[in-house]
Here is the input.
Amino acid sequence: MKKPIFTGASVAIITPMTETGVNYPEFKRIIDDQINRGIDSITICGTTGEGSTLTDKEHKEAIQFGVDYVNGRVPVIAGTGSNDTRYALELCKFASAAGADGLLTVTPYYNKATQQGLIKHFNMLADATTTPIILYSVPSRTGVTIQPKTYQALSKHPNINGAKEATGDFSLLAEAMRLCGDELNFWSGNDDMIVPLMAMGGKGVISVLANVAPDAAHNIAQLCLDGDYAKARELQLRYLDLINALFIEVNPIPVKMAMRFLGWDVGELRMPLCDMTDEHVAQLKQAMAEAGYAPVK
Here is the structure.
């Protein structure tokens, strides 16, 4: 049985920017706020953190900063995925040396990979470090799905701890869980599926919602861990409109704008991401207000 890197809710944290780089003073404020409001873990430099448009220097500095500033208060998971296995290896080794508690590694995108290629890719990463790895399957962004038998093969590696599952395919997930048993932990990669995934044995969520509502994401996951699925379901549904609004355009456009509306100095999005349409802005603000997170005027 593999002990999960964390249980509960990990925030897929945004990266606040200036015109020239990462806004570290504001990053400190955001991290402190997350921890003070009950978040269980912080995932840095992932999709929501705009890891794909950070320079190599920015990416590594942000990981080191996050590990150092969190200073053991909660587990820190570093986004270290790439479509280039060599670069993913470099990032994994760096984040491990920096002291990250886990490494989030997405399936290679664009050039993609066969299932055999995925097994070779992830095993190479797992062989290169002693820091536990979380696989990330998100075919809507990468065009690649980790299949159940591939999960089973990867679960045999002692350093592959689990998977962030964002396929939205519960038939696939059920088969993967059946095949892997206790040898692979699963976390939801979709905020609207926390409760059903955890009801099947998942350990929590790596959450976009948590940027805006860390208390809500934590509470939904904790209620599941406590076995109170009725209250967890009620809370999940209460936040469903906000969850949907945070994906009204491609992530992290809405969540970064939502943080801006709440008064955080998050800066501009990195191109090719850009601000939302006026219609979507109005929908996001309405969903935030109805959920109790009214934009600052």
In short: Residues 11 and 207 are 5 Å apart (CA to CA). Residues 56-70 form the longest helix (15 residues). Strands lie at 8-12, 41-44, 76-79, 102-106, 133-137, 160-165, 185-188, 204-207.
